[in-house]
Design a protein that fits this description.
Rossmann fold; alpha/beta; eight-stranded mixed beta sheet; 15 strands; seven-stranded mixed beta sheet
Length: 372
């Protein structure tokens, strides 16, 4: 198969869909790899590194899209990319379609087979291709929140770890999944006073055991969310419903009860955000203020640390990527967990959460593949 990897074009996105190490694996499986020139510069990999790994170099993204059977990316295709996709081609990347009706329309119109990293599952019910970026984003969320809390950046002027004689900053983490766990680890490491809110009591028990009493845990209710957010200096939005739009846990009205200069970090912004007042921002202009509360809503947070992120992502996506390259659509038919990643196929939405969020009639992935 001809596997193509264009350069990412989203604002300040320096990750790359294929590292040189991943290219070697595809080549070893007998596939041709076409890299856009400069695609790996953000992780310190020049065209020579890719050529040494066995890839061919294309001058433009248009060449990559036109000549490849499968496109491997990091972020969702932008408007000038999805118009280059075509029927019979496989797209393998993060999609986050639920809050993005225009991209969904573009993928449907293209006829492409779109496999989303974020909805591929494993035998434990986890999301193995989303997990590494959730780990990165969770850890970055605390760094971002700590920076935004500085007075020069519009925040309250609170040091999360405090100092002897002065109480530490208070961090509230909404959601105890991979993002929330990693955010809490970083916040605890800095010495902050941390509370994790989740609606799963078994998960709260796990978190209590993991942190051995160093964090507070609370069951998610309207009252608990309000109380913790009103007292917090930094709130991390870390909720996830796989494939679906994130629930709005913090309303506009609640901002008036929060501390002036408090910081909201919405890690769920790729799925529409879990704060009512969230809208996507970029690394170039990451924050904005509403009612005295600072919002950090960068939609590609791991792009800030591309060397770590790209290698972690490739470690997670390589196995299924090779399956797709080796077997084409048969890989989706054979592997139920990979098939869960199928979001759009030949003009039809095949993911229930996406269909419900955007009002499409859904066709089961297995049925769509058989019909094709």
């Amino acid at each position: 198969m001809r596997v193509g990897c264009p350069k990412e074009i989203k604002n300040h996105e320096y990750r790359v869909g294929l590292t040189p190490g991943a290219v070697r694996e595809y080549v070893a499986h007998g596939h041709q790899v076409l890299m856009q020139s400069g695609a790996g510069l953000g992780i310190g990999a020049d065209d020579g590194a890719y050529q040494a790994a066995g890839a061919k170099i294309a001058k433009t993204a248009e060449d990559v899209f036109a000549q490849s059977d499968m496109i491997v990316k990091v972020k969702e295709p932008q408007p000038n990319e999805w118009v280059q996709l075509r029927d019979g081609q496989i797209l393998y990347t993060y999609l986050h379609l639920a809050p993005d009706p225009e991209q969904t329309k573009g993928l449907i119109a293209s006829g492409v087979t779109a496999v989303a990293y974020e909805t591929v599952t494993d035998e434990r019910g986890g999301l193995p291709l989303l997990a590494p970026m959730s780990e990165v984003a969770g850890r970055l969320a605390i760094q971002a929140g700590a920076t935004a809390l500085q007075k020069a950046h519009g925040g309250r002027g609170v040091l999360l770890g405090g100092v002897p004689g002065v109480l530490p900053g208070k961090v509230t983490v909404l959601g105890g999944g991979v993002v929330g766990l990693n955010a809490a680890k970083m916040a605890v490491g800095l010495g902050a006073d941390v509370t994790i809110i989740d609606r799963s009591i078994p998960r709260l028990r796990q978190l209590d055991d993991i942190f051995n009493g160093r964090v507070h845990t609370r069951y998610s209710s309207i009252e608990a969310v309000e109380e913790e957010c009103f007292s917090a200096d930094c709130i991390i939005g870390a909720v996830l419903i796989p494939g679906a739009a994130a629930p709005k846990l913090v309303s506009r009205e609640m901002l008036s009860g929060m501390k002036k200069g408090a910081v909201l970090v919405d890690v769920a912004i790729d799925q529409g955000g879990c704060f009512e007042t969230s809208h996507a921002t970029t690394h170039a202009d990451p924050t904005y203020e509403i009612d005295g509360v600072i919002h950090y809503c960068v939609a590609n947070m791991p792009g800030a640390v591309p060397v770590t992120s790209a290698h972690a992502l490739n470690n997670a996506t390589l196995f299924h990527g090779l399956q797709l390259a080796d077997k084409g659509l048969k890989a989706l038919a054979d592997d139920a967990h990979l098939r869960n990643g199928l979001n759009v196929h030949k003009g039809r939405v095949t993911n229930k959460a996406v269909a419900e969020s955007l009002g499409y009639d859904m066709i089961e992935a297995q049925a769509a593949l058989k019909a094709a």
